[in-house]
C-alpha cells in the first residue's frame, strides 16, 4: 500500500499516531522542515521537538486548522492532489462518511499496534 489513501496521506504525528492529511499540508510542513522520516514505518513524522514551535508559528493558518491543536489531523481530509483524485473515483460510495471514518480509525489503530509491537521486540 502506498502513502496515498482515499481521504489523504498517512503521516505520523508527534505521538507516533498515524493521521491522514492533505498533500498540501505535507508540503507546507516539509518546506518548513517540520518533518522527519520515521525509520520503522517509513512514513514522514512531525518532529516532536518542533510541535510547540510549530503550533506557535502556524497558529491560525490553514495548516493548523487542518492538523488541529492536538495534531490529531482531520477525520477525513479532502485532498485534491492527482493521486487522491484518481483514488477517489475508486472509493466505495455506498459507505456513509461515518463508516469511512471508522475504516480510517481501524487502519490507524492497526498501524499503531504494529509499530508498538515492533518497538517491544
Ligand atoms: Zn492527496
Task: Kindly describe this structure.
This protein has 121 residues and is an alpha+beta fold. It is globular and about 35 Å long. The chain contains five helices and five strands; from the N terminus they run E-E-E-H-E-E-H-H-H-H. A hairpin with a 2-residue loop joins strand 1 and strand 2. It has one domain (4-120). The protein has a three-stranded antiparallel β-sheet. It has a two-stranded antiparallel sheet with strand order 4-5. It has helices at 23-31, 51-57, 62-67, 82-88, 97-120, and strands at 4-5, 8-12, 18-21, 35-37, 44-46. Helices cover 44% and strands 14% of the residues. The longest helix has 24 residues, at 97-120. The structure holds zinc ion. Zinc ion is lined by residues 4, 9, 23, 79, 81, 83-84.
List keywords for this structure.
single chain, 121 residues, alpha+beta, two-stranded antiparallel sheet, 5 helices, 44% helix, 14% strand
Layout of secondary structure:
Elements: E1 4-5, E2 8-12, E3 18-21, H1 23-31, E4 35-37, E5 44-46, H2 51-57, H3 62-67, H4 82-88, H5 97-120
Antiparallel strand pairs: 1-2, 2-3, 4-5
The structure holds zinc ion (ZN).
Residues 4, 9, 23, 79, 81, 83-84 line the site of zinc ion.
Could you give a short description of this structure?
By secondary structure, the chain is α+β, with helices and mostly antiparallel strands. It has helices at 23-31, 51-57, 62-67, 82-88, 97-120; strands at residues 4-5, 8-12, 18-21, 35-37, 44-46. The chain has one domain (4-120).
Amino acid at each position: 500500500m502506498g502513502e496515498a489513501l482515499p481521504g489523504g496521506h498517512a503521516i505520523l504525528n508527534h505521538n507516533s499516531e498515524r493521521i491522514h492529511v492533505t498533500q498540501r499540508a505535507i508540503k507546507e510542513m516539509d518546506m518548513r522542515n517540520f518533518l522527519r522520516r520515521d525509520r520503522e514505518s517509513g512514513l514522514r513524522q512531525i518532529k516532536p521537538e518542533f510541535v510547540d514551535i510549530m503550533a506557535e508559528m502556524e497558529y491560525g493558518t490553514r495548516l493548523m486548522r487542518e492538523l488541529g491543536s492536538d495534531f490529531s489531523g482531520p477525520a477525513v481530509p479532502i485532498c485534491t492532489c492527482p493521486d487522491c483524485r484518481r483514488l477517489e473515483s475508486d472509493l466505495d460510495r455506498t459507505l456513509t462518511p461515518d463508516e469511512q471514518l471508522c475504516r480510517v480509525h481501524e487502519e490507524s489503530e492497526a498501524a499503531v499496534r504494529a509499530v508498538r509491537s515492533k518497538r517491544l521486540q
